[in-house]
Amino acid sequence: VASFCLLCGQNIFPGQSTVIVYTSDHFELPLPAGHRFPMAKYRLLRERISASAAQLGLQLHEAPWAEDAAVLRVHTADYVAKVRDGTLSDAEQRRIGFPWSPAMAQRTRRVSGATMAALQSAITGCGVSVNLAGGTHHAFADHGAGYCIFNDTVIAARHVQALGLARRILVVDLDVHHGNGTAMLCQNDASIFTFSMHCGRNYPAVKPLGDLDVELAHGIQDAEYLELLQRNLNYAHARSRPNAMVYLAGADPYEGDQLGHLKLSKTGLARRDQIVFDHCRQHSLPVAITMAGGYAKDVNDIVDIHQTTIIQAAQLAHTPGWYPPSKPASVFACSQ
Predict the structure, then answer these.
(1) Half-sphere exposure of 85 toward its Cβ, with a 13 Å CA cutoff?
(2) Gap between the Cα atoms of 157 and 250, Å rounded
(3) Which of 44, 88, 95, 306 is deepest in the core (most CB within 10 A)?
(4) What are the C-alpha distances in Å from 295 to residues 1, 165, 168, 207?
């Protein structure tokens, strides 16, 4: 069943294997000189994906704006107002890691909206969709932290639940850092199962219990990581019986990452993605993919890893018959 953008009237699923990729100039937030966050990765990744979009069967769309109704399913009204109005304290801004600005408030709405749209379009489209940012898993109900302002994963999960498109969501968080905000937000929500594989002795210091937490030792390499992933992903699926997945495909388990402490090669990370996508193929499980973290000294290493993830996602989408051909209709805005 075709789906149409409310604003432009365009059929955003013209072919069953079309992968919708959400991106925006707003993802690249201007930061003070010397800031350690590699903002350039968003622009560089978009440029690479744009260059190969036709070949891979991708359509790039402007990330939509997450409205209050969606954000307030997850975050407190007081916190949402602070982010909107620029009344975060200095301490709250330091905890987030970004200074407040109108651009910062715009960015977090677009990032959250992109994951909402990606999950919705994965379920109603070809089974796969991508946000070229997102994975803001350190955001809690009433505060942000670790470069995360609003929690796009939980916002998106509750969005598709509210639309009646899915009942149970599996979050597969393969960022190198524990998704503490996601775990806390979902502790009393049995409909969202949180599975995190992360470096145990790393940020954040306090790690609230998720549904399945796999703590990894410093220096773990490809073979051990991949075996743990395969075994625990099967277990998470059996426990959660999901209708859809949100996959945080962090680039920071990479051996060259400055904040990660793991030793996965680019080949190992590509195999990681393949395991996740093979699992989705096996279970006909629609998946929304977010980029999450990456802090390699050379930003091109981060972009290489994310680009490989998206290439493999496109390959999943082009697998004949893997995702049910009959899907519910969807009407939503692809831009704002």
Answers:
(1) 9
(2) 19
(3) 306
(4) 40, 35, 32, 21
The count of other CB atoms within 10 Å of the CB of residue 212 is 20
Query: Average pLDDT for residues 145-159, to the nearest whole number?
Result: 98
Which of 144, 143, 207, 142 is CA-nearest to residue 175?
Answer: 207
* Residue-averaged pLDDT of the chain: 91
**Sign of torsion over alpha carbons 24, 63, 154, 231:** negative
Helices (H), the chain: 40-56, 68-71, 77-85, 90-96, 102-124, 152-162, 180-185, 222-240, 266-283, 299-317
Is pLDDT at 332 greater than 50 in this prediction? no
Q: Residue length, the chain? A: 336
Using only C-alpha atoms, the chain has a radius of gyration, in whole angstroms, of 18
d(CA 334, CA 22): 8
The answer on pLDDT for 85 being more than 70 is yes
Closest CA to 146 of 31, 220, 37, 33: 37
Q: What is the pLDDT of residues 224-269, one digit of tens each?
A: 999 999 999 999 999 999 999 999 999 999 999 999 999 999 999 9
Q: What tokens were used for 94?
A: 């330091």
Going by C-alpha positions, the residue among 168, 177, 173, 216 that lies closest to residue 195 is 173
Burial class of 39 by CB neighbour count within 10 A (0 to 12, 13 to 18, 19+): middle
Q: Look at the block and give the residue holding tokens 């929500």.
A: 189
